[in-house]
Amino acid sequence: MPVARPEPSDARVIALIDMDCFYVQVEQRRQPQLRGLPTAVVQYNSWKGGGLIAISYEARKYGVNRSMRGDEAKKLCPEIQLVQVPVARGKADLNLYRNAGSEVVAILARKGRCERASIDEVYLDLTDVAEAMLSENPPEKLEAIDEETLKSHILGLDEEVDKQKGELAREWLCRSNASQQDKLLACGAIIVAELRMQVLRETEFTCSAGIAHNKMLAKLASSMNKPSQQTVVPSSAVKGMLDPLPIKKMKQLGGKLGSSLQSDLGISTVGDLLKFSEEKLQEHYGTNTGTWLWNIARGISGDEVEGRLLPKSHGCGKNFAGPQALKTLASVESWLKDLCEELSERLQSDLDQNKRVAHTLTLHATIYKTNDTDQLKKFPSKSCPLRYGTPKLQEDALKLFNSGLREVLDLQRADIQGTSKSAWVVTHLSVSAGKILAKPSGTHSILRFFHSHESSSSSKEQTYNGIDQNSVPSGGENQVVVNEVEANKKTTINNYVNSSSIQGEQQKETSYHKDTNSILRFFHNRDPSCPSQEQTYNEISQNSMPSVPSGSENQMAADQAEAKKGTMISHVKSNLARGETQKETTQKGSGPILRFFQAQRAPCTSSENAVPSTSGTEHEQESDRVSAHEESQKEKVEINDNMNSLHHDEHRRKRWSLNPEEIDTSVIDELPPEIQREIRVWLQPIKRAKAAQRGPSIADYFSPAKKGPQSHNS
DNA sequence: ACGGGTTCCACC
DNA sequence: TGGTGGAAC
């Protein structure tokens, strides 16, 4: 639960920017002919039309909602356009959306501290910019307020009464007798409106926003008026907003805590919560949560915007529902390979683009025991030091899986029953990489310096991109256990391993998807009538995919992988961090967001359309190739082999992972000049982040000199 | 036979 | 810690 912190210096200006049905927008940008149509994004369409994960507002009018299947959606809305999430290696591939989210973050981060809260949500701390604006160019002095700003919803104002649209808002925004707090929020509203238009211009995505004095309130506000609108929460409106609010609507209270609040204390609205003393709440839910509850009921939240643009971990996983449950070790291995392959690519991109290194590999699985009534079994998640390179990841992930499996089976063995007739199936697998730190100096001299002083570099392959490659996953203890497992073949594990029914497994896609358009397609005139192409756009040839031994063949895979170590890393060209290189927009001015798309509907200019829109609709070819999943019985041996090699000197090596924030800068001066320079470069992003807050004053954007729709392409 | 795939967090 | 459980999008 969130930590209860005291309110920091109040009168912060916090915004939450929330992309409207984001995946849908991403797909509509790829296929503009979908714009304006009821549209939903589904993943996997073979079973009941796939699961809906994003629904356009047009489609919501028909009652289509999440947790529906494509088929149900079709019933409610026969003309709904269902777009499939790209699939790579047999699983959903979200890179397209991740990259699109990065585009947005890159824009927002130009103003104020910025926290990427999820793939489609960004918090902004605009306190500094708002203060600067208030002192240099306050709203009350502005002769023109942008139309989008005027469309803000100001909580507490009676919009019914606002006959002339925007006049009430204008008055509120420009009041000269407003409190300092309100004036800052007004500045925030202006800034956010501008940012939202900027996002639209540069990405074609609309978003909604909440502007308030803390994250919690901003978050609540952002969802009050969607899509493509913004809502301001003046302090005076907080109580009126919160009191009637069902407690479950509060972030963090949508689950068990919210339920128990209701069932234990009879609390159903935030107003109800107000009646309980802090002590009482602490009695029930502990000091932290108690205090936190007491605070949020009053709209108090000291939660700070973190200033983090990049994710803290990378993970990928897949569920294997029902009949798809994995029944053989070979299929588990095969899927782990695929998952690791994807993870490896993402790690490599992160390394290339952000100079960050992940240090921990974690594997999670869910297994079911069939036959018995008692089905779900706890599978312990396992982690180990992360080694870069696809084969290493694959090898280690498999070891982690085996180690977890063995634990489960050991416990099971101690169990009285469960002996004779039980089989295991795996219903979920995931691997993730965490503990991501800035790579100590992106360049070489420091590494060289330390390496030359390294005592026991056993092989030249010890490092890959400066990252230790030799740490060994922990987990399996010893051979005794392994042999016990071996001896156990006749029982549970044997059934599991020997199970020959493998029908359920999916074949893997051989192609995978990449986002190649993104920002660069900015503002191409598109016309829905343009034969927007047979967009079967196969990129296989461009990709230097590692030629992984197609998996599950035999127990020597690990050894083969070993032999190829270091040679299989594929490089993913990425579109991130391209924000600065876009072409100038020729777009006229910043009309309100509503008008934006109309303005776009211009005849298509032929040359632009030649660009393949890369929409790579893989789902059309939904290859039915049944992949060769001829696993033999060899895996019996495998499980033992794998359990063998675990657990060696994993903690021997020191990895000097440094956190820039922890550096005593006075030390730097004592280093050789070359190294000094590098360290300073390395530290620079931090400094720049600070400097960015001062950035070009918003006064530049909103100077009175400009009238009406500005044409600022700075 | 299912909202799937992620990500983050507090707690022990 | 590492691992678990919960919550959110």
TrEMBL record:
Q: Name one GO cellular component term.
A: site of double-strand break
Residue ranges annotated as compositionally biased, kind Basic and acidic residues, are 617-637
Which regions are flagged for Polar residues bias?
A: 460-473, 530-557, 603-616
Query: What is the required cofactor set for this protein?
Result: Mn(2+); Mg(2+)
What subcellular compartments does it reside in? Nucleus
Chain segments carrying region Disordered: 457-476, 526-567, 574-593, 601-637, 692-714
Which keywords belong to this entry?
Answer: DNA damage, DNA repair, Magnesium, Metal-binding, Nucleotidyltransferase, Nucleus, Transferase
At the top level of its lineage, which domain of life is listed? Eukaryota
InterPro entries recorded: DNA/RNA_pol_sf, DNA_pol_Y-fam_lit_finger_sf, DNA_pol_Y-fam_little_finger, DNA_polymerase_eta, Rev_trsase/Diguanyl_cyclase, UmuC
Q: Which intervals hold domain UmuC?
A: 14-254
Q: Which reaction does it catalyse?
A: DNA(n) + a 2'-deoxyribonucleoside 5'-triphosphate = DNA(n+1) + diphosphate
Instruction: State the EC number(s).
Output: 2.7.7.7
Entry keyword DNA damage: yes
Which Gene Ontology molecular-function terms are recorded?
damaged DNA binding; DNA-directed DNA polymerase activity; metal ion binding
Pfam families per the UniProt record, alphabetical: IMS (PF00817), IMS_C (PF11799), POLH-Rev1_HhH (PF21704)
Q: Does the keyword DNA damage apply?
A: yes
Q: Name one GO biological process term.
A: response to UV
> Where does this chain mainly localize?
nucleus
* Similarity-based family: Belongs to the DNA polymerase type-Y family.
| Listed name of the protein | DNA polymerase eta
Species for this entry: Stephania japonica
